[in-house]
Task: structure prediction
Amino acid sequence: MSPLCFGTDNFADPTPAAESTQMLERALDAGLNLLDTGNTYAMGEGERIIGRALTANGRRDQTLIATKVHFSTGPNSNDQGNSRHHIIQACEDSLRRLQTDYIDLYQIHRHSPTIPVDETLSAMTDLVHQGKVRYVGCSTHPARKVMEAIMVSELKGYVRYIAEQPPYNLLDRRIENEVIPMCQAHGLGIITWSPLAMGILAGRYASATELPPDSRAILRGKFYTERVSPPAVEVGHRFVRLAQEFNLSPAQLAVLWVKDQPGITAPLIGPRTMKQLEHLLPVLDMQLDDSVWAACDELVPPGSAVSNFLNTTYGVGSTFLQEKEKFQELEHTRDYAIG
Result:
């Protein structure tokens, strides 16, 4: 896998299809060989754009496609979650939209408080045996749920998660406490999302109350807005000044910081425009200097957080009742379909 991977959740939301296709081609030309999407990104249009592009350019065999299943894809009770019914149907739908015979990495987008992981892994195992999926993984799972899945796979001979995809940036470093050590101990790769912290680390927000109308905090609603906390914005401003001191752009430093952290396989970059993509590509050949590393640790100490990017993970710092309420809100809010 390349040191950076291409996250496509901006495809069709808001990036137009034509520009999305151009960005995909440029990313592949630059050596980014994994395209990460999800079956609910732009209500499936993200997968369709990838499928059309790879069919047209004939580069499917050079590309690793990672997609996901879990969130709602329709109005019915079986159009969501981690049940066998939904996983099998969602996989068929993703294969059709992606115009491919197989998915390289099929990921469970969130763990389920209601479906036993045994049922989930059994369905994923069948998909692997059928040749429709090559590897399986998970996204934004607490360490205990990844560990539970590993143990069930070992006990029952199911396919085993090979990667976890958590949020990770300088503003929320909590995966360093349990997720990263657990993945290192059990041989899982870590593909991280939101290295720019929704643009907070790029100085996107003047304050926690002044939100640009085209920002994710506005366009994508509650769970995104919650992350723009006053402490996070204050650290973001200090981070911008730090990057300038070391002759880097804040966006480049934010991605570089994640790329070079112990245990990280690759961060996902999710540019909205071709200009943003070109700006981040030089990070492929950069290395984090020890002095920069130390300065970043002073801003946000290891293992701590000033913003909650795990606020869509059931059971992180919540009671059972809070977890149940969050599950119901996420599962039945169609607007929350972007990861």
User: Anything to note?
Assistant: The mean pLDDT is 91. Residues 5-331 form a domain with the TIM Barrel fold (CATH 3.20.20.100). The chain has one domain: 5-331.
